[in-house]
Amino acid sequence: MPHIWCPGCGHGIVMQALVRAIHQVGLDQDKTVIVSGIGCSSRASGYMDFDTIHTTHGRALAFATGIKMANPELNVIVMTGDGDASAIGGNHLIHAARRNIGITCICLNNNIYGMTSGQFSPTTPDCALATTAPYGNIDPAFNLCNLVQAAGASYVARGTAMQARMLEKYIANGLRNDGFSFIEAIDQCPTYFGRKNKMGDPYAMMKRQGELSVPASKASAMTAEELVGKHVVGELWSKPRPEYAKSYDKVIEKAQGGAR
Amino acid sequence: MASVQAPSRTRVLMQGNEAIFEGALAAGMRFYAGYPITPSTEIAELASERLPKVGGRFIQMEDEIASMAAVVGASLAGRKSMTATSGPGFSLKQENLGYAIHGDIPCVVVNVQRMGPSTGLPTSPAQGDMQQARFGSHGDYGIIALTPSSVSEAYYLTIRAFNLSEQFRVPVILLADEVIGHLREPVALPEASEIDAVERRKPALPKGEHKPFRPDDKGVPTLPNFGDGYRFHVTGLIHAEDGFATSNPKLVDKAVRRLTNKLMDNIDEIYQAEQRDIAEADIVVFAYGGTARSAQRAVRMAREKGLKVGFYRPITIWPFHDEMVRQAIAGKKAVIVPELNLGQMAREVERVAHGTTNVIPLTKVNGEILTPAEILAAIEGVR
């Protein structure tokens, strides 16, 4: 299958986890829409056999909100990257979570803008090198899961490409959740982030993902200092809240039954 | 488009923005995503109240960019969709508007123009976004923009905007101005049975055989709706007939030119203009939107004084009908173009005049409307 991803890129693994999760949950292939933004991860929408839409940079969640609101019967899934979702797309991420709209958002976080050849993103670690941070990155990194949870998402999980089977489980649970589900998938860009920061080959990068992972249950007993540089993985938040499109159904009922 | 008046119709006093909303509803609009912005906010407020009553869906998005994106998404999911804004919001929407244009995605974007640039005068009229409506997004493409001169026309033109949008699978900009947006005039509302709403075509072939972006003989493709089982791909990258990205020069050329040609090749179906007393005229007044109201009066006053003055009012602003305008101004002593901007449509008239007719822009950019007296003075000033 022709695709643009580099040998050793983690995006293929995450895409596969999504497809397996869709199959596991049993979603109707004809009623599933994949929406992506711009970036290497967002190319995934062109590689999957559903209704798919490759939108503008940062705006996938806004397009997805329109799709879901217009036809709430559709299963709407967003594939986005760390830059796409949290830099230019930050506002839409916050509001989709706040609304708890029935969209499953998978953020493929390789800590870099890969498509444009290696600029730093809001998740690039402190002191890392990037083409627009030649003296070392001074931007502090977002904790995307914390951000999305605080904004109101009803399901938040983090996994890694190294632990692909767990990722598949989180995505499946996210798909099952009736509301905004956010799954951060830590994966690797060996070509830009990896090479620039001398992180070794793709397998070395993936191995490191595993080594730096701390399960949520363990993390709760650790101090902030101990968690520096680590990825807290697992199902971090799961608390049902009214789903937005369904809340709007109630508005319709009210408008049609009401006095005005 | 059929004539506006019919004897049996109920006449309702309406605000321009209200008429735009009612026209949209009559045309079958059932999704609105927007953001509050003066002087268009009334449209969003009406949508929030009235849409759910008819099973439509409204969402106030977090910003103008998101509103445009949501409108595009909802259209692909099968609903006739619209948003309304003013200058600053229109600027923000350009990227996603370009996305809709490039993806052959129907939608209606209302721009109730305020005085610009920038924040400008939010509650004062202007016609400063005419060129932006045509060229606001990057790259080469075609777009339809309509501009009403009365509240009644705002109602009927909004129906037409949706019809053209669905027929040609292109965003249509409804360029109102603050005058029309906030004016109150009677509108003769049609019976539901009198409204001719165009529905988008559905693919004739099943999945596997149907090419979502294969154009028909007018240059318009038949995209399925999401959820109809076609499992097709939409992208902002230049794409081939199957919807997937291509950089093949032959296909790229074809794809880009088609976006302009689908409108220019069918311009006579799209274009409307009101022309009066052109044949005998020495001077033509070319005016549109709210300014046409003052211009109409000025032309009448001039004719009462014995001056041979004709009136040309484009209702379709884009595409610009070069041939029709050229014919209307050919051999005339002068064509006066009164506008609440610094000559944005005058430059189009000058372009087609090609130096053979004297084009006199009458520009006003102080936040006030052009009066009949000012336009009459310009007519009388022609030597």
The share of residues in helices of chain A is 40-55%
Straight-line distance between termini of chain B: 38 Å
* Mean pLDDT across every amino acid position of chain A: 97
Share of β-strand residues of chain B: 15-25%
Helix content of chain B: 25-40%
- Content of β-strand of chain A: 15-25%
CATH superfamily of the largest domain in chain B: Thiamin diphosphate (ThDP)-binding fold, Pyr/PP domains
> What is the radius of gyration of chain B?
21 Å
Structural class of chain B: alpha/beta
- Looking at the structure, the CATH topology of the largest domain in chain B is Rossmann fold
Strand tally of chain B, please? 16
Taking pLDDT < 50 over at least 5 consecutive residues as the criterion, the unreliable ranges of chain B are: none
What would CATH call the class of chain A? Alpha Beta
Which homologous superfamily in CATH is the superfamily of chain A? Thiamin diphosphate (ThDP)-binding fold, Pyr/PP domains
Instruction: Report on the biggest sheet of chain A.
Output: 8 strands, mixed
Low-confidence stretches of chain A: none
| Largest interface pair | A-B, 39 and 43 residues
Give the tags:
heterodimer, A: alpha/beta, Rossmann fold, 8-stranded mixed sheet, 8 strands, 40% helix, B: 383 residues, alpha/beta, 13 helices, 36% helix
What does this structure look like?
The complex is a heterodimer of chains A (260) and B (383). With 260 residues, chain A is α/β, with parallel strands linked by helices. Chain A has one domain (11-257): Rossmann fold, CATH 3.40.50.970. Helix content of chain A is 40%, strand content 18%. In chain A, strands 2-1-3-4-6-5-8-7 form an eight-stranded mixed β-sheet, with helices on both faces. In chain A, α6 links the parallel β5 (155-160) and β6. Chain B has 383 residues and is α/β, with parallel strands linked by helices. Chain B folds into two domains: 10-194, Rossmann fold; 272-380, Rossmann fold, CATH 3.40.50. Chain B contains 13 helices and 16 strands. In chain B, strands 2, 3, 4, 5, 6, 7, 8 and 14 form an eight-stranded mixed β-sheet that branches. A five-stranded mixed β-sheet of chain B has the order 11-13-12-15-16, sandwiched between helices. The longest helix of chain B has 18 residues, at 151-168. The radius of gyration of chain B is 21 Å and the shape is globular. The mean pLDDT of chain B is 96. Chains A and B meet through β2, α2, α4 and α11 of A and α3, α4 and β10 of B. β2 of chain A pairs parallel with β10 (233-235) of chain B.
